[in-house]
Amino acid sequence: MRLQLETAKESEAKHIAMVQTLRSQLVEYQAQQGSIEGQANRSEVTIAALQRENKNYQERMLEMESRMRYVGQFVSGGSRY
Question: What is the reported pTM?
Answer without folding.
Answer: 0.56
